[in-house]
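task queued by scheduler; priority normal; single chain, no ligands, no partner chains; default sampling; output format set to structure tokens
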Amino acid sequence: MPSKKQPIRAWQRMLSGRRLDLLDPSPLDIEIEDIAHGLARVARWNGQTKGAHAFSVAQHCLLVERIAGELLPRADRTFKLMALLHDASEYVVGDLISPFKAAVGLDYKDFELRLLSAIHLRFGLPAKTPEDAGKLIKKADHIAAYFEATQLAGFTREEARKFFGYPPGFLRIPRLLPLAAADAQAQYINRFQRLSI
């Protein structure tokens, strides 16, 4: 008699003890500590950056939130929190580079958006980022990518302009220094807490 197939495990155990179902994520299984821990250990640019440490997705999110705030100086807490959390799904799925995401196809993007929706709901944000806010956060994301590419990932300015556009001259972007995971995690948590007050 043939044995029944075991169901495929579609959940991940988090360090908080939560068990997050990846196919049907519940906001109740999402903790900011898990997000910060994961993002601080996921490398941008597949780890192909200068420095003693990887430039993490946590640092990238902090940079995007800062740039978004400069693009929209009177931005409210909700907008800034959405900017900080814009790549939060990567604490579970990792940071696939854009060329690979394009090769994987739209199902991957739907998966990311379903997880991001649960994250938003967990922290009192709209399930879906409003279109205008999403466009501005995407612009900040491209600007951050330009600075990361030119300062850390070996791109020339011409290459970076081709892929990410040219950043506005009024932005005040400091020299980017990759941090140790624990430091990136602490900065991410701190910024989240300040925006959540």
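post-processing summary
- The radius of gyration is 17 Å.
- Residues 89 and 116 are 6 Å apart (CA to CA).
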